Amino acid sequence: MKVAIQGELGSFSHEAAMQFAPSAVIVPCERCADVFDALESGSVQAAAIAIENSLAGSVAENYDLLLKRDAFIARELLLRIRHNLIALPETKLTDVRRVFSHPVALEQCRKLFRSHRAMRAIPFYDTAGSVRHAVSERLDDAAAIAPKRAAAQYGGKILLADIEDNRQNFTRFLLVGKRAKKLRGANKTSLAFALKNVPGALFKALSVFALRDISLSKIESRPIVGRPWEYVFFADINRGHDEAAQNAIHHLEEIAEFVKVLGVYPAAVQPNSGKSETQK
Asked: Which terminus, N or C, of the chain has the lesser number of Cβ atoms within 10 Å?
């Protein structure tokens, strides 16, 4: 089985893909759109995509691609994000002057830079890619912030482990395939819908779930491309294939301009993250 990811080998997406499918061949892609292209072309059988981080929020591009493309959610995973400072094996912590990583990872490790004033944060396109860059270019005054897997992947050394500011740092990943399947144990549904801009439209849309005692775990809006100031809503409901959920969706279809079911799948189990530490 081949699974596409956005980013380099050794990234958090790589880790998520291996948890979804431990024996899979991982296919790195440069852009999120490339991941969906690979899925649609049939060159991979599935894709592991990041959809939301508990601190940084939603990955908007992947929401837009789920709406536009023929891809369906099969599973979800909550991955605990552990950042590490990684450098060449011979580099010492006191040698580090430059730290490369994805901008989100840099932002999530602000305490590191307050504690080590000589270090300068430098944005890079990918966490694991920043390790590959530091190691392959033999940058003895540089390090990268990335997952533990990246150190093993590119021959780096972990100078500091678990440097993230907040231990309640998770990324929600989705395993998506080309076709919808009826999955055993499915108890969560993701969908997208658009409404006419008339009074009470959103209230009526949400009432189809409330009247059936169906809980929404998430709802947010995104702009509709090509239609300024019009929006599509993305929602997750805590139900699967049962009759109440199906009736609610059929009711929503009568109210909404369009409804797209993005997937019906088993909800991820919240992992134990340890004690909460808030950013200062």
From this structure: C
